[in-house]
Amino acid sequence: MSDITASSKLLNGPLLSVRSLSVEFGTERGPFRAVKDVSFDVSPGRTLAVVGESGSGKSVTSLAIMRLTDYTGGRIVGGEVLFQPSGGEALDLTKASDDKLRDIRGNDIAMIFQEPMTSLNPVFTIGNQIAETLILHESLNPREARLRAKELLQKVRLPDADRLLDRYPHQLSGGMRQRVMIAMALACNPKLLIADEPTTALDVTIQAQILNIIRDLQQEMGTAVIFITHDMGVVAEMADDVVVMWKGEKVEQAPVRDIFTAPQHPYTRALLSAVPRLGSLKGEPLPKRTPVIVMDGGAPKLVGDTHVQNTADYAKPILQVEKLTTRFDVGKTFFGRVTHRVHAVEEVNFDLYPGETLALVGESGSGKSTIGRTLQQLVEPTSGTVRFNGRDMASMSQGERRRLRQEIQYIFQDPFASLDPRHTVGYSIAEPIIVHGLIKDRKAIEKRVHELLVQVGLQPQHAKRYPHEFSGGQRQRVCIARALASDPKLVIADESVSALDVSIQAQIVNLLMELQEKRGLSYLFITHDMAVVEKISHRVAVMYLGQIVEIGPRQAIFENPQHSYTRKLLSAVPIADPERERAKTRIEGEIPSPVRAVGQEPAIHRMREVGPGHWVAIEADALRGVA
Amino acid sequence: MAAAQAASSSRSRFRSLELVLGILFAGGISLAVLLSPILFPDGGEGMDLMSRLIPPFQDFKHILGTDPLGRDVLARVVVGGRISLVVGILSVLGAVLIGTFVGLIAGYYRGIPEMLLMRFVDIQLALPFILVAIMFLAILGAGIDKVILVMIATQWVQYARIVRGSVLALREREFILSARAIGVGNGRIIFTHILPNVLGPIVILMTLNVANNILLESSLTFLGLGVDPLIPSWGGMLADGRTYLQTAWWVSVFPGLAIMFTVLGLNLLGDWLRDYLDPTGQTSK
């Protein structure tokens, strides 16, 4: 009955129509409704972006369309998902039989997931995995399937497709693996492609490539795409229509332009206000704190004020790094001789001043985290000198080095992973105080922990709770409180805001800036996110393959980038503005590996000064006079 | 919110049910065994050949019946628990202490200590238990203390292996790195951050090994390497009763039940302890 009405409705209409869909999960504490009464349509050849923060139900919605929630403990408790398969009448996927669903999955509807490593089976070659889909759904014989697989790899612009067919997933880089996933998803010319955060785990330049490929293929094949993401920049680059989800509900749906120019729902406005925008501080020499709109219950609230961050004191540097080199041995012969090394950091020089934020920017493998870990004495440097307050770290005694761990603190990317699950957060915050013997009296320590919690925007009674009882943003506040407990001079923040939702991210960035002003902290801010860098930093160092290729005042780097890699990095950032022309420049190429055979030392860049304090590596083609 | 609280309180009630049953079984049996000199002053040795193989629940004097020598089964089960419990529990505790310590050191420091300790562990795991036991007891002589020593000497390696494996995974975790970044020393990291996180698998192995060791004691005694065979023990009674299984099941079933309830009780206590130590399972007040 409903199938007949559905087909009459869907013919020449939308390809997929989700109508008042609700999904529940059974938990220990009773059923939890992850998706509440969500409806939207997807038309052939269009891209619908589903945006929301963690816990908004956007991923569950996408899994429910394919009825994959059946396998993750979810239950569709209401609504229908009408789909128009090729050459047949429309059917309701929530009621379809398992056989019918298997036929549709991978054939009419395909899916790409966030983590390309875990979605590929490590024991089969790339060729076999693509061929499997083809043999299953298109009933090709193995030889035909292999040929088709090769064509598909070429379609996603993978070079040397012939040889790739016989490779295993672990032999490919993350970006290549994601392209293989796309090739697999497109194997049977699906009518609908569901992409669940397909570029979140990738570097920005690789992300730009993948987005380009998805867009091109969509135009070529007329596929409809549902794009699940939390990144408003990606939305602006990819989407035709946008559905905004919040706490399991659809709060707004509109064409992409309207979402950005005239957001209706307060949550959409809050989300957009929190998105860091590249170029927002154009013409300003110093970083600036700006207020954020925060959802307080159901109503938006403005938090914070505008404040220019004039905190740096350029009299005497607190940290001087000279020719710092860190290498790791990887390959060894049977007799223990080292054959290959990771050249993580190569002769890096920089200074950091009191009250200043220096951003270390780069993609994976650029060595930015290794610098942080070397400074924190978690990794031994191979050579070079590091001076803290003028004292050479290498000549320090054991005791002085321990003291350094009090004055330099480290904040990690994942706050949940960096807190011991078996101890209360109060214990974790008190630990640095106890370890360094800063306060002896138990009562006084407790008082100090409470003060710290208040300083980072939490409450004293939170001290008795365990890490799993907090949200992601609160946990990062706990980690900041822990880092501040020993009263440090320098804080190394290693991708500390990258894993957070944008609204939380904006608040944490403001908190860090506020603490910098109050305590005169220096930050070494390690990140891959250019938009956050622009907001928080006084100076920026761009890293590529273990070396700094450009360093200078923030304004100079963003408004007058000199090195080709800096320009590439800046152009790869998705801009949260749909009016902007999409993908002007096409970025190609993988990030080379920093692993080198022994004896093959990388060439050290020579730097030239192009502005006050603005240094750029001289590029090879510039030397030859080509550029 | 109210529903969530109700659900979590039913959860904690279940937790306390485990605790109550665990104490009831393991504690009740232990108490009876402790009081055995008062309850059964003859130590279950009193033979009465006139009342051999009386089935249970028929004679008030012998509620659980008698064995082929006319000895009271109940008395022997209670008295026999002395040997079995002492061997089962002390051997496991000793092995846990040594094995956990070695596993922590090997897993945390890696390098030479790990290589030496773990190769030693591998060699020991490759030797058959009986061979080691015969060698050991042939040199030291029989006796309950020696039996316990043999068990500790052969079983600590299991704990060392399990603990080292867990430590290897834990030491790469970010909270350990973050503790190190703060300046926490090695000793403190090992005992306050790593040890609490490896207790789960240790507790499980412990409860399994208690039962195992109660039976092992009887094998050793059977081979003449263990305790004086005249002193009753659960494992020994089980072995003796085997020949009468067809005609007089009670001789072996009751000591078997004693082992079962002890192990069940310890298992429940172990589960409770593991959950009690894991804060993610509970909500703080």
UniProtKB/TrEMBL annotation, chain A:
It comes from the Bacteria. Its EC number is 7.4.2.10. It is an enzyme of class 7 (translocase). Its main location: membrane. Keywords: ATP-binding, Cell inner membrane, Cell membrane, Hydrolase, Membrane, Nucleotide-binding, Repeat, Translocase, Transport. Pfam families: ABC_tran, oligo_HPY. It catalyses: glutathione(out) + ATP + H2O = glutathione(in) + ADP + phosphate + H(+). One of its GO terms (cellular component) is plasma membrane. It is found in: Cell inner membrane. Part of the ABC transporter complex GsiABCD involved in glutathione import. Responsible for energy coupling to the transport system. This is Glutathione import ATP-binding protein GsiA. It comes from Microvirga guangxiensis.
Automatic annotation (TrEMBL), chain B:
InterPro entries: BP-dependent_transpt_permease, MetI-like, MetI-like_sf. Keywords: Cell membrane, Membrane, Peptide transport, Protein transport, Transmembrane, Transmembrane helix, Transport. One of its GO terms (cellular component) is plasma membrane. The chain crosses the membrane at residues 19-40, 83-109, 121-142, 190-211, 247-269. It is a multi-pass membrane protein. GO terms for biological process: peptide transport; protein transport; transmembrane transport. It comes from the Bacteria. CDD domains: TM_PBP2 (cd06261). It is found in: Cell membrane. Residues 81-270 form the ABC transmembrane type-1 domain. PANTHER family: D,D-DIPEPTIDE TRANSPORT SYSTEM PERMEASE PROTEIN DDPC-RELATED (PTHR43386:SF1), OLIGOPEPTIDE TRANSPORT SYSTEM PERMEASE PROTEIN APPC (PTHR43386). Belongs to the binding-protein-dependent transport system permease family. This is Peptide/nickel transport system permease protein. It comes from Microvirga guangxiensis.
